[in-house]
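Reproducibility note. Readers wishing to regenerate the assembly model reported in the main text can use the exact inputs given here. Chain order matters: entities are listed in the order in which they were concatenated for prediction.
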Amino acid sequence: MTPLQVCVEGIGLWSPQLADFAALRALLDGAMPAPPPARPTAATLPPNERRRAPESVLLAVEVAGQAVAMSGRDAATLACVFASSHGDQAITDYMCATLAQAPTELSPIRFHNSVHNAPAGYWTIATGCHAPSTAVAAQRASFGAGLLEAVSQVLAAQHPVLLVCSDSGGSGPLAEVTGCGQSFGCALVLAPQAGPASLARLSLSTLRGHGAAAALPAPLDAWRNANASASALVLLQLLARGHGRCELPAAAALALQLDVQATA
Amino acid sequence: MPQQMTPLAITAYTATSAIGHGLAAQLDGLRQARSGLRPNDFSSAPLACWIGRVAGLEDAPLPAAHAAWECRNNRLAWLGLQQDGFLERVRAARERYGADRVALLLGTSTASIGATEAAYRRLDADGGFAEADLRMPALHAPHSLAAFVADALALCGPCLTVSTACSSGAKVFANAERMIRLGLVDAAVVGGVDTLCDSVLFGFNALELVSRAPCRPFDAARDGISIGEAAGFALLERIESAPAAPRLLGYGEASDAHHMSTPHPQGLGAELALRDALTRAGLDPAQVDYINLHGTASLKNDEVEAALLARIFPARTRASSTKGYSGHTLGAAGIIEAAIALQAIEHDFIPGNLGGDTPDPGCGPQFAWANEQQRVEVALSNSFGFGGNNACLAFARAGFAA
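Running the prediction on these inputs yields the following structure tokens for the assembly.
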């Protein structure tokens, strides 16, 4: 296939160790960036929503806000793709525990926050965005599959798209099976053509198979193991460097080959 | 403004819900005005409400080869795939195009959360998952449905779960159109499956959105939804490969930007999705013969949707909600109601809006309160979800030119 080409205009990142993409850059340059506060700030949300929103939403909104700010785009005009392998594990844990013991006491707020598209809902409400929004999942391949969906939207509509991929850390018995112990979120604003805000050009093609497990330096490799969304670090590392090629899983038997180049 | 799109052929489709297993049973249930709803007998502590429960799932274990994926949701997916020769049609597409050239795009709201609920009811002495529940981590994740179906259909192309609550099973048609148009794949299996589980029964109950009686969409006295379960699938290919097949003419997707669990009071997102679907399809509202409405029987949804219908469509357009038959099947609603819209085209049959015995005064002349027989060239299907997530699909018979 002819590679699909988009331009990256904004990058957002949050984990307990990294406050943003600049912190990843600093880390890769050998510095020790200061860790962010314990909860993502999610400044895009109005204060009352910030108090009500579950952590999975704060995380997604935080990285989305960072990426959109970097792009200089108006969030209200951006179609958005929110990917997550597990959704809000803390709410799933709460719901399953409550249903096992006192099902009629289930919290209505936590139930409506449990939908996989809760981050998309809070984000579109906070930014006044009427553009298409979606929420997707693909197990350990959620970042690659979400990226493929976002790129296909960019090229099909010839319009910029916000991609967010995030998983908040698990708790309770569920965390034992998900193996997702710490939070990680990232976001990209992708555009069909190069413009003043372009940071890099991204070419994407599909390959049969899982793709080679790309090497990551410590401590990034451990972070990737602790959160499915952190498979994005393979690409984020190349974006920090400004060029390079990597493979990422996009489905059980499908990989993406990604080439990062400087925009001319 | 989107551009008009090249239609896609729908070369196979199927639906299984409380109405029945497969298309013939679904059409028969609609023609006989026979609701599939029954008093709630699901879960250990059933709430006093009515549900759309698929018969026979308890006696339909997965085949041994797929036993690792065992759970109610995957059983329903497997039962759905057996109907209407769908498995054979997918096999033929796989052989024709290659397993990596057929996408699998499935909508679900809660996937196999029922298996996770069950695991929490039998935690071991240390408060962790029991040995048996630890063995299949992929069951305890939103992607479990699509991962199982990819395995069952031996597909290895793009595979994505769309989980935007009750619009999930409609939005997958949009994902498929983009992937086929860009040449990422040559065909796509789309669909949606959701099953009854405590999360949705007690969750919607907590939100006070569940009726104690069978749901009454667009009735003046409606008082909430009836939750159902369903599985539906469709196979999409380019029209050159199947010029005689019915068509996906267009789709629209939009966000309300209003509230997590209440629709926009003027139906702004719903209208944007509808107008985008008409634009992509190259249709004027007057060309629409039938609309399968979202019509959940919640107070607010039906009020907003009835007003939208009344302000955009002429009196000759027919419209109904079929949730009085199936219940609200959440992430499967989009595909089940797409199948009903396609059957409306195939059989020139407008299903009546079951349960609307005392029509809400906000309902216009477009409503088909009882079954009607008339030519249907073009049919739409509306699906709206929590988070203000709206989708609209446009279908037409083979050879239709807008």
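We highlight two features of this model. The two ends of chain B are 18 Å apart (CA to CA). Chain B has one domain: 8-396.
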